TrEMBL record:
GO molecular function terms listed in the Swiss-Prot or TrEMBL record: hydrolase activity
Keywords: Hydrolase
Protein name: Serine hydrolase
Pfam families associated with the record: Beta-lactamase
Taxonomy, superkingdom: Bacteria
Classification lineage: Bacteria, Pseudomonadati, Bacteroidota, Flavobacteriia, Flavobacteriales
Residues annotated as domain Beta-lactamase-related: 33-340
Length: 365
C-alpha cells in the first residue's frame, strides 16, 4: 500500500509542479500587462515594481531605462528618490523620540520653536496629521527664489512660518509639506543630531536598509536611477533643486528591496513598540468630531473594502507609490524615474490583482 502511494505521488509530482509553474507564469503575465500600460516602452525612463507577501518577494521586476544618456537598462536594484514617502520615516522618527521620553505628540510646537506664530496652539500631532493650518511652502509664489539654495532647517521654517494660516489647528485635513519640514527641525532640536544622521542611525541601519540615503546630487550613489521630465521634444534631465528645501517632507532615496525591509521592520516592532506603532496607523478626528483617513505618515484607505496603508511621492524627475494590506501582509511598491510615468494607479491595480489571486487560491482545495 505504501509503495502504491509513493508511485502515485511520483507520478503526480511532475503534474503538480507544472500546474504551479503555469499558475505562477499566468500571475506574472497578468502583472506584467498591468505595468506595461504605463511602463511598456523599453527605451524610455522606467520603474521597478515589487510585490511581497509575508515578507517574501512574489514579483520583482524592472522596466525601461535607468539612464538615457548611457543607455543603461533599469534593474530591480536601482536607487530612486521616493519623494513624500519620506514622511513615513519622519513620522516614525518622531514616535521614536516620544518612546524615548524626549517629546510628546501632544506638545505644542512652541515648546521647541519658541517664536513660532500660534505655536502654543499647533501641536506635533497637528503637524503629523496635516491638520495644522500652516501654509504649504509648495504654494508660496517666492519658492523659486530658494529652490536651489542650501537651506538650514531653521531657514526653511522661517521661509513659511510668518505666512497667514489657512485655517485654525484641527479644523480640517489639508495635505501639507510645511508641517513635515517643521517635524524634521524638531527632530534635530530634540535629538541633537542632523535629520540625515538620525534617520540613518536609527532607521536605515537598524532595518538593514543599506541602499537608502538622504538624497544628494553630488554624492556618488551606487545604482542611482537618473530622473527625467518629458517635454514636447522628448526627455530632459530633471530640474535641479536643493534637497534642503523638501528636507524631511521629501528628500530620501531608496530601493524597492529596502522599502520591503522598512515594512518588515515596522511589522516586527523593530523600531517602535506596539503602542507607538499603532499611533501611526490609526485614524484621527477633527475638532468637530469628523474622522479623516490619515494617521501619522500614511493614508489609511481601502482597496475593494479591504483596509490598507498607503502613500505616494512626487519630486522633480521621480514618482513613487507604496501600499500595504495588513490583513494579508501584502506589500506592493512601485518606483518611477520620470514624473511623466506615475506608478500610483498601476500599484493600486497590482494590489487588486494580488488580492484576487490570494482570494482565488484560498478557495482551492
Amino acid at each position: 500500500m505504501i509503495i502504491k502511494k509513493l508511485i502515485t505521488a511520483f507520478v503526480l509530482l511532475p503534474f503538480l509542479i507544472q500546474t504551479m509553474e503555469a499558475q505562477t507564469k499566468g500571475y506574472e503575465k497578468k502583472i506584467d500587462s498591468i505595468i506595461q500600460t504605463e511602463f511598456g516602452n523599453k527605451e524610455e525612463p522606467g520603474g521597478v515594481f515589487l510585490i511581497s507577501q509575508n515578507g517574501k518577494s512574489l514579483y520583482r521586476k524592472a522596466f525601461g531605462k535607468a539612464n538615457l544618456e548611457l543607455n543603461v537598462n533599469m534593474t530591480p536594484d536601482h536607487v530612486f528618490q521616493i519623494g513624500s514617502m519620506t514622511k513615513q520615516f519622519t513620522a516614525v522618527a518622531i514616535l521614536m523620540l516620544e518612546q524615548q521620553g524626549k517629546l510628546n505628540v501632544n506638545d505644542p510646537i512652541s515648546k521647541y520653536i519658541k517664536d513660532y506664530p500660534n505655536g502654543d496652539k499647533i501641536t506635533i500631532h497637528h503637524l503629523l496629521t496635516h491638520t495644522s493650518g500652516i501654509k504649504d511652502f509648495t504654494k508660496i509664489k517666492s519658492l523659486p527664489s530658494i529652490a536651489q539654495k542650501e537651506m538650514k532647517p531653521e531657514e526653511m521654517v522661517n521661509f513659511f512660518k510668518n505666512e497667514p494660516v489657512d485655517f485654525a489647528p484641527g479644523e480640517k485635513f489639508d495635505y501639507n509639506n510645511s508641517g513635515y519640514v517643521v517635524l524634521g527641525y524638531i527632530i534635530e532640536l530634540v535629538s541633537g543630531t542632523s535629520y540625515e544622521d538620525f534617520i540613518k542611525k536609527n532607521i536605515f541601519d537598524k532595518a538593514g536598509m543599506t541602499h537608502s540615503y538622504y538624497a544628494s546630487d553630488r554624492k556618488v550613489i551606487p545604482q542611482r536611477a537618473y530622473g527625467y521630465h518629458k517635454k514636447e521634444h522628448g526627455f530632459v534631465n530633471k530640474t535641479v533643486i536643493s534637497f534642503s528645501v523638501p528636507f524631511s517632507s521629501g528628500s530620501l532615496m531608496s530601493t524597492t528591496d529596502d522599502m520591503l525591509k522598512w515594512q518588515q521592520a515596522l511589522n516586527q516592532n523593530l523600531l517602535l513598540d506596539l503602542n507607538e506603532t499603532q499611533k501611526a496607523f490609526q485614524k484621527y478626528k477633527l475638532n468637530n468630531g469628523e474622522e479623516f483617513t490619515y494617521g501619522y505618515g500614511w493614508h489609511l484607505k481601502d482597496i475593494n473594502g479591504i483596509p490598507d496603508r498607503e502613500h505616494g511621492g512626487s519630486v522633480f524627475g521621480f514618482k513613487s507609490m507604496g501600499i500595504y494590506i495588513p490583513g494579508e501582509d501584502l506589500y506592493v511598491i512601485g518606483l518611477s524615474n520620470c514624473d511623466c510615468h506615475s506608478p500610483t494607479e498601476i500599484t493600486q491595480n497590482i494590489a487588486k490583482a494580488a488580492l484576487q489571486a490570494i482570494k482565488t487560491s484560498a478557495k482551492k482545495p
